[in-house]
Design a protein that fits this description.
single chain; alpha/beta; D-Maltodextrin-Binding Protein, domain 2; 2 domains; two-stranded antiparallel sheet
């Protein structure tokens, strides 16, 4: 998603049934009444047999679950399929990492702009939600001002930001500068929103950009589809997926080139360096064994693939 307010996150099948039941029950108690959604493929290796299990903090090994904060409305990165199951690029990558670590990654739904707060409050172990790794997020700053504690990132994908309009009606919009005097719909707390605000400051002749910000990208798409906004913007994989699938491919079109290419990162509390390093090792392992490449190809986003896990690679 690309992400955020500062220049825009799987129980072991082979365990004994009793232990698995206790682990799941414990996880449910810890996460309260939130939307508790399992990723598409739970990790199948137990912590006793998974190759990287010993890398994890003991508390996570004991519960057998990594709790993931995510805005599950950002296809194809993470979204609900027709049966209500959480699917997408992020859940698939998390499931593959879970096999290496011997734990399940359990996705919990939340609005994007609250995920880092949920991470800081220990509601989530990590945030995995097409979140762009930026220096501001790493440092907990916004517009040069301290707004909270920073987070660490394990970078796993690269994506830029795109603009889209209704199909056959681009209204002359090719670049961000062309949005002056127009209305754009974006998701709140994303890089798209930040770019729109930055461009608005450059507009002249009284032609300002009317920016409508929504809780999730689907709401922004609905606004553009209905003609209530001239354009929308989101991360390139999300825009491309919407253009391909919405209305049977008849609703939207991409205009111009994607900009601000940057890494997506798994966000982790800065104090939890052991978990961070375990995730890095797990990502490197699935890149090396080919599982990562299969997932990226499955979703048709090979252009965003990385060749190694990097910690805090955002600028």
């Amino acid at each position: 998603m690309t992400a955020s307010s500062t220049l825009r996150t799987t129980a072991a099948r082979n365990r004994l049934a009793a232990v698995g039941a206790i682990a799941v029950a414990g996880a449910l108690l810890l996460t309260g009444c939130g939307d508790q959604t399992k990723s598409k493929e739970s990790g199948s290796a137990s912590t006793s047999s998974a190759p990287l299990a010993s890398k994890l903090p003991q508390a996570i090994r004991d519960k057998g679950v990594v709790t993931v904060g995510s805005d599950i409305a950002y296809a194809p990165v993470e979204f609900k399929d027709a049966s209500g199951k959480t699917v997408g690029i992020d859940p698939d990558i998390a499931a593959a990492m879970g096999k290496q670590l011997g734990v399940k990654f359990e996705f919990q739904n939340g609005t994007f702009d609250t995920l880092i707060t949920g991470l800081r409050s220990k509601r989530y172990d990590i945030a995995m939600s097409a979140m762009t790794d930026t220096k501001d997020r790493q440092n907990g700053t916004e517009n040069g001002k301290k707004v909270g504690e920073g987070v660490d990132f394990v970078d796993y994908f690269t994506a830029g930001v795109s603009i889209y309009t209704k199909q056959g009606n681009d209204q002359g919009i090719k670049t961000w500068a062309d949005l002056c005097g127009k209305k754009i719909a974006v998701q709140r707390g994303t890089v798209s929103e930040d770019l729109a605000k930055a461009e608005n400051k450059k507009c002249t002749g009284g032609k300002k950009i009317a920016i409508e910000s929504y809780d999730n990208d689907q709401q922004a798409q609905t606004r553009v589809r209905a003609g209530g906004a001239d354009a929308g913007s989101s991360d390139f994989p999300v825009t491309a997926y919407a253009v391909k699938t919405s209305g049977g491919g008849k609703d939207f079109q991409v205009v111009g080139e994607q900009v601000e290419a940057a890494p997506y990162g798994i966000a982790i509390d800065k104090t939890n360096t052991q978990l961070r390093d375990a995730l890095k090792d797990a990502l490197d392992a699935i890149i090396k064994n080919g599982e990562y490449a299969k997932i990226i190809a499955k979703w048709g986003v090979q252009d965003g693939a990385v060749t190694s896990a990097v910690v805090n690679g955002g600028k």
